[in-house]
Design brief:
Length: 200
């Protein structure tokens, strides 16, 4: 890698390499050497931009969390439109793509990484906690619009949906998520609280 490459480019190149390794070989294969080899750059490039490998991994996960924040805004903006079950199904399939599932495995397998991430995610498992907040935000918006029952326990529904989604996709070896299975899980969780849209 040329020495004049911008920091953002180096970060993206290293993050992309780490994600490919995670999906292909799993969390245990992720080392500074494997990342720089996959990225096609010198090992020193990673340490030039990150204090240590754990700092790199924390930034990698925070980057994925940032993507969830973007997804959360987009999902919330759909409230009131389309089918609630369809929106939730799409959200779960998008959330639990191969990289995200592998990143959750990474967080679960590394105590030091979870400790670092406690600064931004004080409770729950980083990535899954933010995904749960995303689903809760959407359900809350739909409840406000009358499309979810007013007494719906969103604090119970959101983690139930995330748990179901994670279990459906966590053992997947590539390929597209099973949308039908995701929709059945969504309906099993929320069917009792879905309401027809109120008249305009």
């Amino acid at each position: 890698m040329p020495t004049g490459v911008a920091l953002r480019d180096a970060r993206e190149q290293l993050f992309g390499a780490a994600e490919r390794i995670l999906v292909r070989d799993g969390p245990t294969a992720l080392t500074s050497r494997s990342v720089t080899t996959e990225a096609g750059c010198a090992k020193g490039v990673l340490h030039r931009h990150f204090a240590d490998f754990d700092a790199f991994l924390a930034e990698l996960v925070l980057d994925r969390i940032g993507r969830i924040d973007t997804q959360a805004t987009a999902l919330r903006d759909t409230a009131g439109n389309g089918s609630v079950a369809d929106r939730l199904t799409h959200a779960l399939c998008e959330l639990f793509g191969p990289v995200a599932v592998a990143a959750v495995g990474l967080v679960i397998s590394r105590d030091a990484l979870r400790t670092r991430l406690r600064r931004t995610t004080p409770r729950g498992i980083p990535l899954l906690a933010e995904a749960t907040a995303m689903i809760a935000g959407y359900l809350g918006a739909e409840r406000d619009l009358g499309r979810i029952a007013p007494d719906a326990d969103i604090d119970a529904l959101a983690p139930a949906l995330i748990g179901a989604g994670h279990l459906l996709f966590a053992d997947r070896e590539g390929g597209a998520p099973d949308t039908g299975a995701a929709r059945r899980a969504v309906l099993a969780v929320v069917a009792g609280v879905l309401r027809a849209a109120p008249p305009a």
